[in-house]
Structure formats: C-alpha cells, structure tokens
C-alpha cells in the first residue's frame, strides 16, 4: 500500500511550497503541473485519487485532489482572477505573497488583509466548463472503475480499526460504503446510481460537514426542507444522476470542445465561503446597478451552490479516447504497457469473437447474419471526415423485429452490458413531440440547455421504432425527426442558438430496430430472421446474460472498445483486386451495383477485417464482405417479394 | 511609487472644486495594473464609476456660492493656460459660467461621459521630479512639455495639439466609407464632419482609428492604451476647433469624440487581461439588452435641522452619506432628496460572439456591455454590431464580514461607439460580403494562387474532393460561387441584372447530389439548405408571426431571404409543391421577393444563387425522355437555370475502375494525406470571399465580340432546321459565366478565354440536359418551351393528318371518337397513342375546326 502523500490530501500546500520557492519568476505554475504529472505517473497513482464519479461530494475532503470523468456540456465565459496577490498585516505591516490559482476565493489569515492595490498583483485568465458525467454511461463502467480503485480495497482492510472521530476523510467514507455494500449487496448498484442525487438536497454543503456526515450516513436521501426549487443540472438524458461540476481549466482550454470526454485531476473546491460571497453579491445586486449585469437565472446557473455543483480546479486534464475502465486509459503506442496489453488481447481475439458472435446470435433469436452485422456496427466509429462526408459511420436498421416491445427492450439491455455508454430511444408520437432532442441556448440564463442528442463520442443510440403508432407529428416532432436524420446521415447536430444554428459534429452509433423499413435513413438494413421464438422473452434473455461468465463479458467489452481504436489500411494489391471486382460486378449488372454499394462493401470489409483483429484488408475478407452483403440483399429481396409494398 | 495609498491625492485644477470633499484614495486597482509598464501604481485612479457631474451648468439655479472664482479662461495658446487645457479641469463649471460674453466653448454645456469614467481623478506627473507628484500647478512653460498624466505617457498639451493637427489636416482620398456621402475626399475629412455637426446639431464626432493610425502612430497608441485620458483631451481639442470656427453654433452639449475601428481586438475570444482599460473594438451579436437603468451620479443631501444642502458624488457605485452636517454639526441629519439628485441613463447589453468567429465545437462567448446616455437603446437583440469601447474589470468589493474575497473580476465594456454591421448592408448594394478582413500575407498568398495557370482546374478539384469526377459540374458550381458582376440598369428601366448563377442538378438517386449541396452549404458563409419536401412557400419566403415579447406582428424571413448574397441549396426540388415553386419565379430572375401578408406589403431583396437538385420522376433517369419529362418541372422555371447538369451514373469500365480506386483510397487514407492533395477548404473559402468582394470584371472588347459570335452561332445551329436554339437568356447566362471565370482569375477584364470556357461549360450542360432523345440534337426549346422542336413539329403534322382524314370523310356533322382514332391509326405508319390523338384534336379545336363533346366529335 503506497503511502498517500500530502499531494493527495492537501495539494494546495504542495502548490504553496512550490510557489514559495520560485516566487519571483512565473515558472512556478509549470513546476506545479510537472510535479503532479510525476506523482500521477507513479504506479497506479491515478487509482488512488478519489473520483467524483463514485464518491458523493460531501464525503470528499475540501481542497483535496480528486478526479472526475465527465463530458463538457457547456462552456462559460473566461474569467479573470487574481493569479498572485499580496496580503498585508495591518499591525506589523508584514507583506506576504499568495497565489490565487486553483482557488475560488483569495484567502488570507485572520490578521491579514488583502492589498488590492499591490503592484505584485497578477491578473490571470481561466475558463470554466460545465461538466456532467458521461451521459448514458453503463452501470458496469461505474462499477468496474469504482472497484478498480485500490483505495477501495485498502479501505476494506482498514475496517478492522474503525476510528471513532468522524473526520470527513475519504478512508472513512470507503469504509462506510463498504459496509453498506456488504450488508445489502443488491443495493450496491442502486446506490451508485443514486449517489449524486443526495448531494442535491444538502444546500448547506460543507458548512457543517460533521453534522451532514452523520445525517448522510443515516440516510442518503435526506432532503433538507429549506431547499430552493431544484436547480436543473442540465443532463442531456432524462433520469440521469450524478454530480455536475464546474471545471476550471487553467491552460490549453482552446483544445477542448463541447461534448469531449475528459478526465480531470484537480483540487476540489466546495468552499462555503464561495456561496456566501456569491449570495452576498446577489443580495446587494438589487441595490447596486453596477452589479446587475447578470439576471437572477444567470447567477443561479453560473454560480450554483458549491455543495450542489462543486468546483474542480484542474491541475491536469486529458481527453479520453474511451471510457472503458477495462482498457488502459491512453492507448498510445509508445508505452510498453499498453502494447503488451493489446498484443495479449490480440492473441486470444478469435475465440472471443466467436463467443461474442454466438452470444449475439442467441440474442438475435438465432440469426447469425444479423449478429455478424451487429458486431460490425458496434465497432464502427467515424474515423475521418472528408469535407462534409463522415467516414466510418455504420448505421444499421434491424428490420423485422417482433412488434411487442419486449424483444427490443431486452436487446438494448444486452447492448448496454457490452458498450460503455448507450441510450435507448423509444420512438413514439408522444416522445417525438415532447422531448427535447436538440440542445438550445437559453439566453436568459446564458447557458446551453442540453438535449437528448448531446452525447459523447461512441455512444450507442438504440432507436426503437417498433412502438411507433399512427399519429400526427407537430412542429417539434418534425424537427426532432429531422435532427435524427441529420445525425444519422451527416453525424452532426445543429444546436439551436436562437438567432442562428451551429453545427456540432458527433460520432454516435445508431442502431434502429423496426418492423418494416425504418423511416429514418440508415447505411444498411438487415432483416431479422428469427430461428427460434422463445415463449418467454424475458426469461430467455436474462438466462442468456447469466450464462455468460463475468470474465467473458469483460472480454467482450474490451473487444468492442479496443477494435474501434485500431488503425486500418488497404494495400495496393487489394485495391487492384477491389477495382477489378467492382468493374466486373458493374459489367454484369450495372443497375444493381452503384457507387453507394461499393461504399457499403468497403465499410463492411473494413469492420470485418478489424473485427478479426486485422489492420489491413485481405482478399479473403473482401470476399467475405461481398458474401455478407449478398446474403443481406438476398434477404431483403426475399422480404420484398413476400411483402410486396415494402422495401 | 509602489504604494499608491501613501501617495498624496492632490489634484490639479482645484479651482471651483472646493465644494467636493476630496475623494479618498483608497481605490482598489483594476487588474490591468501589472501590464502598465510606464507606471505600476496609478491605475488606482481609474475609477470605473463616473464621478464628474458639473451640476451647476445644468442647474444654474443651484449654483454654488463656492464657485465664485472668476473664469480665468483665456482663449489663447496652450502653454499659457495649461491649466485650462488639461482634461483635469476641463469641464468643470468654473471655467464656463453662463453668460460669459464669448459664448463658444463656454456657452455650451459640457456633458459628462460616463463611458469614460472619472477623468478628473487623473493626476499629472512631472517626469523629472518623480515622486513629487503633488501640486504641479507650477505651470511653467518649460515644465509643460514634460508633464504627463499620472500613470501614462500622455502629455495633454502635445496630445491635444496633435489631435487638432489630425483633424485639420487628415485627408485620405482613397479611403471610401459608406458614411462618406457628400464628403469631398480631397478636403480634410474631419473638418467637413465638424461642419456637418454645425449644421445637423448632433454633437458627436466619430473618428476612425485607422485614420489616426496612418496619421500619427504614437497618438494612436496612446489612444488605445489610455483611452480614459486621451479621449477627453480629444474632446477638448475638437471643441476648441469647432467653437473657433462656428462660435455661434448652438449644440445640446459639447462635442464628444467617439473613436471607432480600433484594431486592438477583433474577436471576443482574444480578449485577455492585457486588454483591460484599453480601447478595443469587437464584433458580435446582441443577445439581450436590459431595461434602462437610472444611475445616480450625484446625490443631493439636505440637513433636516438647518436645511444645509450638500452634494455627494458617486464613488465606485456607492454614495457616502454624510453622517454629520457640516453646518450645524448634527449627526445623522442629512436626508437624500431624490428630485435634486442627478441621474444618467445606463443600459446593460449582452454581446455574443458572432458565429463566424467561433472555432468549431465550442460554444460562443459573451461579454457584458454598458451603454450610457445616447447609446442607450441604440441596439436591439439580434443586431450584429461592432462595438468600440473600454474594457473594464470591476474591482473586487471587500465584504466586511468575510476576510477572504472572491478572486474573480467582473468584466464589461463601456461602450463608446456602436456600428451596426447589418444596417450597413441595406445602404450599399456594392458591398457584397461583410468586409471580411484579410491579412496582407493572406491577400498576397491568394494573389499568388490566382496567377497559377491552372487555378481554375485546381479550385474545381478542391471543391468537394470526396465526390468523384463530375468535373464540369464542379466547375459550374465553382463559377456559381464566384458569381457574375452586378450591373445596374435602373436608369434605363430594366432594374438590376442578375449576377447570380443558378444551377440545377438532376439525375439518378445516389449520385451524391445531396452531398454536393451539403458541401456548398458548408462552404459559403451565407448559405441555406432546405429540402423541397419539407419546405413550404412561407418557409422559403417570409412569414408573419406575433412576437412573444412585444406582441407585435413581425416578419420572419425564410431561407431565400436569409441567403441574400449567398447560395440557397434546395434539395429534392422536384418534390416541392406548385405554390412553393411559383415563388421561385420572381426570385430567380428579378432577385426580389414580394410579400403581401397580414397588412405587411413589401419587397425584399433575395439576391441569392440557387443550387437545386432534383430526382427523376421515375426513380431512374429515363434516357428516352427529355429533361422536362424526366423531372416534371415547368419549363418556365427550368429556363431560369443557367446551367442544368445531369448527374448520371456512367456505365463505363474505365470510369468504374477509377471510381473504385477513389473510393478505396477514401477508406484508408489518413487525414493528413488527404489534405496534402487538395486545397484547404479555408483557403478556398477565402479565395472566393476575396474575389467576390474585390474583383469586379468588366467585359473587354474582344470578349464582347466573342460573346456575340457565340450567340449568333448558337442561334444558327437551330435556324437551319427551323428551330430556335438560343434566347437572350442564354446570352445573359454566357456573360455571367464569363464574368465568373474572370473572377476566378482575379482579372478585372473579361477576356476571350473566359468566354471560351463559358461557352464550353454552357454547351456541356446543354448537351446533357437539352438533347432531344429522339433526334439526338441539342435543342434549347426543350428547356424554354418544355417541348423539343421536333416533337412540336410532329404534333402539328399529326393535327394536319387528322384534319385531312376528317375532310376526306366528307360532310358528316359528327364522328365517333373511337372510330376516328382507329382510322387515324390505320392510316399512320407510326404508333399513335391516345394522348397524341387528343392533343391533335385539341389543336384542331383551337383552330375552330371541330369540337369534342364526350365521345363524339362535331365539325363546325
């Protein structure tokens, strides 16, 4: 058990130390980031940092180092703050320099006053992002990343000596949590999901951490009665829970974009002083015209109570390629560790693929072709954009699904077990007319109000069309359907900024389940041919899931996330062969083979090769891709002849 | 000078200011402090709150007895009365008491400038005797030159003199601005402006900072860095000149100088702490404006015991209520008298970054603006404006109860000048695009590009590189992007000539038409993308709706109006319903849109190019039919397209092979490689924008000849076979295309090569779309009348044959319909359909030869 250093519990004192050593010159900032980078590089050090995703805010020590895995939902205006300031003791006239970085408030000792006129004051700039947990994050991602923390294990060991004094340290928290889980293992998951929401109640935040601590342990869902109308935390998906966070970024903020998934390491700030300062300002704003720059709503959104929306002052931030905790966070080729991991996994790739195929075949009621296509769909990703054309999207329309909702519902549950983030969109006249799909800007509160389609990259969106009834779409409904269509065809969402629209590119895997052909566009339509009709869908599906060993399930997860990230190329030789093939096909039947078909075949070939772990296209794969396409088309034609009016 | 609090706060020019209690110098410094290289302490004086109301002028009745010192204003040169010329005293009541014989400067009340904040707090520092900042009233002439306003390097006297020189001498005959109507460009521009002020009576002088920069670099720098000090000096200079020239002029208040177009910052995103307290210009869009806020400038207190009155100026947003009456020494007896306090107008405005300035994938930034006095309510939400103002960071207020303070500064801009970007567009037709600024290197680079011999091919290739081949179509679209030159024939009664090129793409589904449209829509700054299926006539034109806030009827513009000066991409053109399509007739030729709805009757400009895509009525293109028959669009509409291209799936082995290779490479090439091969989209965009705004080619002599020949040739082709193969509309198309091609070359003159290319492209397009499938001859009448000449001929022949047949039957008053058809069929050697027969009957009926009633045909 490595020693939990000061840098974890009170990172600011480390910063203070570095600051004091290097004060006259400004490179202390660089040294701070370097220090923490070093520290986090150490063996498993990142796992020692408590994560805001797993631990409720009030269990975390203020001003300690935390990490947070999140999606940038909105970007606020940059703010200017005092980077360096000076305090003066009115009695002794002693002057001390302080740093304002990584802090919300400029602090000073009891005998000190801040000298705002000091020539030493340095004004700096930082940017605030409004971050929410990754929308649609699967339960298993949360679970595994939580269990992966060695802190969790060590805490369970620490159970032998339960301390009496209840300090809000995270060790204590882990213990509590741990015990809780031991007692009610079934509750475990539920609790993970529910953790964030309890913070919604305690408006007082850490004013009285001790009291809250006991209160919280008594029951996690105590809502204090004097709570103001709940603040909309602006999660893209309905029913989401978790901490939203104001992430203050100090460098390179230009490189982050809306909807990026980040992992940030930073200083947690839930300073109650902050709330006081803010509310002071709010109170006085009625008196002072100077302060009425922002409306009340804007105030509420931009400086919510710190207990509800904590602040993180970022020391290190990185964009995540994926959120699968089973994979190393950064899959760069330089690191030997990741190389090893990848090559190890690659060696056992084909049995995993076979097993996954079998699993999905069962899930798709014995249809192996559909299962094959589903694998291809699940590893697809937009890998490039050629002017406006997104390359690598592979929207599959699974037609011929049984009309009762049970099948699609359970299929989604299975997919949810496999992918790190997903959302199930049940299309119905009502949901189309009444949901908010496109994020729009609320100018009164000056924020981007999220919508269903504000999703992180590589989120699986499963659209269920089987429940669509006859009815009339209203204007909002038409807009929503158009937005879905745009998302599928161009992989972009036009956010509504009232006076204009802005295009945000996205990378979302869309799977449409429908009875006939979907009303939404798709890249390829696979008609389901069930081999078995289980009498009880629910039983069948859940038995399917329990039959899979957790370790195998984890392999599936790794498989899908890893293959998506592989590179791919086509050799000249194969290019020639493909050319020949295409010309040949066109010769025989120019009507049926168009450039579009070639597009599709190349896509299928790409994902087919990748699914077998091959990064170049081989002739066999190409033939296999052709074969798959032919099978799929034959099935469609067959379907068409059975059901004359449908295509 | 490291501790400003200890520096004495003596101000110069105290005459007449004795009544005001000295403002305490405990000002907290705005954050820009460290940036001020000249001096690190002074900015404590730069209060964001205005504190200088010369109340006595506006309310002379309340004139303070203390303001008794006689005006010592000598209208003489600067050094002698340095005191007066300093901005510190400038505007204080003592120097201009009402009724001074010489009206001029003194007669016109000074209007305080809340936008600049308090100037009077500025102190002057003698550079020589650093530290002895107090009372430099020793205004010796020799010292005068070395006096600067504390914290700056601004010497008031020389600054003023320089600015006066600028006003009197600045001439820039080349610079033309849209506001310059009626200005003689060879005369000093700003003197004419002053004259205008004298006539119009609007006491604001707008000064283009760009002019100032070209005139005096140093003065410009001072203005940018120390606007708070320099602008009052400018005010003073301008007023002196003005009242010197027009001593009898009566203005509402003294002239205020409003600089604009400071080049400091263009983009909101670039604002950083270094810009604080500097003059900046940013562009953006107004998203919200507040109610008018009356802001107290000066509070009026009266003692309730002895009725002694006193005034207290606002200091950093606070009024310090006097706790003790100075007259009777009663404590807490002073009460605020609202009616006699002074207020000024203020408005808070939120400005958002304009969408063009935003990097992809980020949300727009906003910034708060404070508008004062006249500038209140000058802009509405939705307006695009260029704002010039001073960037401020509000000092932190200390909370007495908490020792720690919030370390975040609040920032805003005090507006000095607005310039609406869209209202300008209404004024001038010539300015095609927003005056997009190009750096010199960029222009150089673009010009270099334009000199390449194969620039046309290169650009065409750069257009939608992911779409394979279709080179001529890409070339056509390229020319559309550039557009022709706008010609004005209003004086000869023909109105504007259309400069925009309209293109229709039709062809098989799945030939990436939509993709091409999407590309164009993404490329041009003012593009609109609609689908014919979903759009209604109102969606394209304009509709009237009730504004939820004001409850007034407002006109909401549709896609065509929004794409004025841009390109409107309409997908699934054929799926558009009839009424919607009819709207396009006007737009596509007259380039206007007439609206008569809900009492709003107007004509809007819709100078938009239309790029439309249509699918054939049968899902596959039928090569045996004409274009019209395939897409079922009225010919009246089709003839308004300059170019109609067919995007067909060629059935050709070599093509297939190339296509396959192209697609395969698409699927594995890395992104960097793609970019190497083709021109960057940004370069293309800039190239087009530059050409559109700066190149305006005219027809050369040779080119005109070539065009005439081309037209005559086109007419000749058909004349031999008794059909018309070209109409004036085609000639106009040719001219537009030739002009656009000249624009591609950045050439100011249309030359023969341009005409050649226009001819070629036009021919190519015609070959595709106007070939009569029956004869294989290009026939323009397919597009202009909807029917090929041969088809028409055949129709006539049939009618004649029918007539002969009937006449041969002798004098029968009526005939059986079916019988007649059978007879005709028997007689004819070609197959005759029922439709053809009916048409022939109709033709004869039109000739009053017969009438058809039910199943019988009667002769007349």
UniProtKB/TrEMBL annotation, chain A:
<keyword id="KW-0539">Nucleus</keyword>
<dbReference type="InterPro" id="IPR019140">
    <property type="entry name" value="MCM_complex-bd"/>
</dbReference>
<dbReference type="Pfam" id="PF09739">
    <property type="entry name" value="MCM_bind"/>
</dbReference>
<comment type="similarity">
    <text>Belongs to the MCMBP family.</text>
</comment>
<dbReference type="GO" id="GO:0003682">
    <property type="term" value="F:chromatin binding"/>
</dbReference>
<feature type="compositionally biased region" description="Polar residues">
    <location>
        <begin position="158"/>
        <end position="168"/>
    </location>
</feature>
<dbReference type="GO" id="GO:0006261">
    <property type="term" value="P:DNA-templated DNA replication"/>
</dbReference>
<feature type="compositionally biased region" description="Basic and acidic residues">
    <location>
        <begin position="182"/>
        <end position="193"/>
    </location>
</feature>
<feature type="region of interest" description="Disordered">
    <location>
        <begin position="158"/>
        <end position="196"/>
    </location>
</feature>
<protein>
    <recommendedName>
        <fullName>Mini-chromosome maintenance complex-binding protein</fullName>
    </recommendedName>
</protein>
<dbReference type="GO" id="GO:0005634">
    <property type="term" value="C:nucleus"/>
</dbReference>
TrEMBL record, chain B:
<dbReference type="GO" id="GO:0042555">
    <property type="term" value="C:MCM complex"/>
</dbReference>
<dbReference type="Pfam" id="PF14551">
    <property type="entry name" value="MCM_N"/>
</dbReference>
<dbReference type="GO" id="GO:0006271">
    <property type="term" value="P:DNA strand elongation involved in DNA replication"/>
</dbReference>
<dbReference type="InterPro" id="IPR008047">
    <property type="entry name" value="MCM_4"/>
</dbReference>
<dbReference type="GO" id="GO:0003697">
    <property type="term" value="F:single-stranded DNA binding"/>
</dbReference>
<dbReference type="InterPro" id="IPR033762">
    <property type="entry name" value="MCM_OB"/>
</dbReference>
<comment type="subunit">
    <text>Component of the MCM2-7 complex.</text>
</comment>
<dbReference type="GO" id="GO:0016787">
    <property type="term" value="F:hydrolase activity"/>
</dbReference>
<dbReference type="InterPro" id="IPR001208">
    <property type="entry name" value="MCM_dom"/>
</dbReference>
<comment type="function">
    <text>Acts as a component of the MCM2-7 complex (MCM complex) which is the replicative helicase essential for 'once per cell cycle' DNA replication initiation and elongation in eukaryotic cells. Core component of CDC45-MCM-GINS (CMG) helicase, the molecular machine that unwinds template DNA during replication, and around which the replisome is built.</text>
</comment>
<dbReference type="GO" id="GO:1902975">
    <property type="term" value="P:mitotic DNA replication initiation"/>
</dbReference>
<comment type="similarity">
    <text>Belongs to the MCM family.</text>
</comment>
<dbReference type="InterPro" id="IPR041562">
    <property type="entry name" value="MCM_lid"/>
</dbReference>
<keyword id="KW-0238">DNA-binding</keyword>
<dbReference type="InterPro" id="IPR031327">
    <property type="entry name" value="MCM"/>
</dbReference>
<feature type="compositionally biased region" description="Polar residues">
    <location>
        <begin position="86"/>
        <end position="97"/>
    </location>
</feature>
<dbReference type="InterPro" id="IPR027417">
    <property type="entry name" value="P-loop_NTPase"/>
</dbReference>
<comment type="function">
    <text>Acts as component of the MCM2-7 complex (MCM complex) which is the replicative helicase essential for 'once per cell cycle' DNA replication initiation and elongation in eukaryotic cells. The active ATPase sites in the MCM2-7 ring are formed through the interaction surfaces of two neighboring subunits such that a critical structure of a conserved arginine finger motif is provided in trans relative to the ATP-binding site of the Walker A box of the adjacent subunit. The six ATPase active sites, however, are likely to contribute differentially to the complex helicase activity.</text>
</comment>
<dbReference type="GO" id="GO:0017116">
    <property type="term" value="F:single-stranded DNA helicase activity"/>
</dbReference>
<protein>
    <recommendedName>
        <fullName>DNA replication licensing factor MCM4</fullName>
        <ecNumber>3.6.4.12</ecNumber>
    </recommendedName>
</protein>
<dbReference type="Pfam" id="PF17855">
    <property type="entry name" value="MCM_lid"/>
</dbReference>
<keyword id="KW-0131">Cell cycle</keyword>
